[in-house]
Amino acid sequence: MVLHCPWTMMAASSAGVCTACTIFRLSGRYWFSRTLSYNNNFSIRNVQTTTLHCQSQPQTKRKTDPRKWVGVVGLEIHAQIHSNAKLFSESGVHFAAPPNSLVSYFDASLPGTLPVLNRRCVEAAVMTSLALNCTINKKSLFDRKHYFYADLPAGYQITQQRLPIAVAGSLTYNLLVRQKWNQVVTKTIRIKQIQLEQDSGKSLHDDTRSQTLIDLNRAGVGLMEVVMEPDMCCGEEAAAAVRELQLILQALGTCQGNMAEGQLRVDANVSVHQPGEPLGVRTEVKNINSARFLARAIDYEIQRQTDVLESGGWILNETRSFDYKSGRTTPMRDKEGLQDYRFMPEPNLPPLIVYDNKTVPAHADPQQVVNIDQIRERLPELPNVRRSRLVEQYGILPEHSFTLVNEDGLMEYFVSVARETKAEPRKIIGWIIKDLLGLLKQHSLNVSQSPISPMSMAELLNLLEAGTVSSSAAKQVFQELWKGAGSSASQIVQKLDLGLLQDRSTLEQICRTVIDSHQEEVRAIRGGNKKVLNKLIGLVQRELKGRADPVQVKTILEEKTL
Amino acid sequence: VSLALREGKVSPTELCQRCLHFIRKTKFLNAYVTVTEEIALKQAEQAEKRFLKGYIPPFNATVVQKLLDQGAVLMGKTNLDEFAMGSGSTDTIFGPVRNPWGYSRQYQERCAQNPEDTKDSSDWLITGGSSGGSAASVASLTCFASLGSDTGGSTRNPAAYCGVVGLKPTYGLLSRHGLIPLVNSMDVPGILTRSVHDAATVLGVLGGHDPKDSTTVPEPFKPFSLPDEIDVRNVCVGIPREYHAPGLTKEILAHWTKAAELFEKAGARVVEVSLPHTQHSIVCYHVLCTAEVASNMARFDGLEYGHRSTIDSSTEVMYASTRHEGFNDVVRGRILSGNYFLLKQNYDRYFVKAQKVRRLIANDFMKVFSSGVDVLLTPTTLSDAARYSEFTKEDNRTRSAQEDIFTQCANMAGLPAVTLPIALSERNLPISLQFIGQGFREKNLLTVAKWYEQQVKFPLIEFQDVADHVSEFPKTTKSASAF
């Protein structure tokens, strides 16, 4: 058997070393022992990458000058089209329907059945492509991608390999630096293409009875595959980009975007390299079902690849699966080796033609054609526009508009509260983002599950605004509301006697008592240490369960100490 | 017959019973796979094969439904080559189909004069294929019309050998919904009848857009009837030079020449034309055909329907054994070569190149038609029907290449073509010629064919007592449809 170097495709010498590529000697390893079964997977591009590394960075230098590896991340996202019927058949689309209850003859690949394209799916793809600034191909083609799998009844998937419906778009997203709410960085990813394709069915493996059960409800559901260029560098960026795409799809209504239900599925292509050098060998990470896991999987994979390269090893071009329990990625055994999908034009579907106002045929039935210009007119407000509108309309900070839009239902919550109260939007933001959202996250709840309704929140803020309660008492009322005993904010104020103390003489009396029992602090204040005054204010408030107006307490204490 | 029906001389029930009687008498021909004496039986046209043995499609093909909607009486499902892959109707799970002409008085008498031809009484004449059962059903007078499929000539080839009219309509005129695909980009439902007039009538019922088949043309289709008085003086008939193929019998060549002279005498313009890329057609046909076959057959994995192997130690093993058991050598061979042509490294060299040549072949026809030619006149087959023992001396692939030589070009270009019997050969077997027309101009094509039909007065088949042969029919009944 002649061994071939995976990088140069040249026959190796008897020592297992490729004569055209000295890289293996430098790494101190014989390549064939590691890559024998994978040697078909390497593309020509990797020849340059690895050779350059070796020539410019001898091993000795590496030790003294630890190099900086950066991650390169590209995403392939499958978004299930939100439609009544499947891409090529009239069967319905519902998550968690009884197994095999949504299967037409075509979906089950009965011989003699033919695909009939669902116009709604084309419109969804065009609308999504417009929202992602793509160039829409007026003519696109369908292809068959062949592979045998139990949940792929026809033995091929109908997809758009040669000429997809849209190309060359972009996705702009915001990144909150280091998870602090104070700095928003705007980034843009290039979108290579968007293609229409069929979803597969689902296989359920019953290991105890060693059988596989197949549910074809999902088979043939329309998917939009969004292929992104490798323009991201870490898990956080990827997660933020996916979140933005999710918001856009939900705003458009073209995809429900629920990752847990598989409506949005993300595969990540990850590699590492050194700045200024060609891209490294990449791995594809699959089986990621939330944005949080996406970030973790990518960061794990970047670290793993960096460690492998640092220790002189090599990255294999392979598909890896993310295990959310261990937080690791592992090679997927059934995806080993090179698949030849034997692409072929789909002969049962004519080219897909979409029109604009200029090209639409005069006699065409509007129900039968897809018009790009008409769809553009129907585009709803997209998340970034929504954020700008919030900033403009309510005078809030951009980072706050970011949080409001990115948290499901939070913007609606905010708008409802703002409508019902005269409180400043900025004040409302503080309560909603710091207090409410904080508690919700702490209890892993959605905004829709909040025990405090927008109406209760508005009532509380109105009490605060009217001076009926102090801000510290308001926090107590908030805590009571969270417990959800069913009382309104004003009922709680009454019940717990949290109303603002209006009687100045009572207040003065309590201040006097505090001063008398804290002479040391009073001396400090008189000596010029004004900060100690706050301690006294706190003591007074504690005495009064926060019912006093802090400004008034401060005035009285100042008068009495100075 | 239609005249007799209209005038009430014969009732539809009587007619149906007469046909059923004929079917029983001609059972040995193996033409029918299922005889559906009760017409309400729901059956789609279906290419029977061992993979789908016992599989009853739960829906009707659009073409079948259209006929039923018009009140057609379904007589049964006819026999054909497995998955329509063949040109003899010899590679079929239900046993080979026998040509009714082998049992005609005309042929038997000629054989008696020439003892060499009858040395083996167990031998018989093939029908051609793949829709041999459909052709035999019409030729044996058991029905008036039959459906076949035509991918490379599967309707016209057996029609020619069995002495009936075989029409391959323009691609996109008839729905393929319900037709088990062989080569999706070439398949069309074919129509087999006793006369050109009947073919036009059936076409009128079947033609038109089907929302279930996106490759049917959206333009409305108007059924037409053919005139009785036909004048061919304004017709230009093209004789393609390249159809003088090696292996063409002198007899057929002579009839072809005679036909051209007949047109000339009647005042038609007859011109020799050239279709230079025709010589590459059969090779390209095989690349495209096997590629689509490989793809179309991928669905037969035994999971959803059809045969499933009992060897199931793993899903992959189950696939492999199911497909090994379920397909015959011909089908397996085509799947293997098709997958080879579709491999990434071969795709451009074979598949794309074949598609390019296909375009050149279609352009050849376009050029000829735009030069003023109305129809092309060509042979349908190289010779008359062969005996089974003779035919099976060559393998399926070789036979397909020989048998489809004159017919598959029309499929490559998507053009309508009709074959009709014109005379009996020296062996007293049907000889047929083919007319190829312009896309969607079936009316012109069939009008010219009808004129020629009127001139040649092809004789009716005469049966000796068919009961003589009933003892020898194999197993049982049961696929294309006969009406």
Automatic annotation (TrEMBL), chain B:
Molecular-function annotations in GO: ATP binding; glutaminyl-tRNA synthase (glutamine-hydrolyzing) activity; transferase activity
One protein family per Pfam: Amidase
Entry-linked SUPFAM superfamilies: Amidase signature (AS) enzymes
A GO biological-process term: mitochondrial translation
Keyword tags: ATP-binding, Ligase, Nucleotide-binding, Protein biosynthesis, Transferase
Annotated transmembrane regions: none
Name of the protein in question: Glutamyl-tRNA(Gln) amidotransferase subunit A, mitochondrial
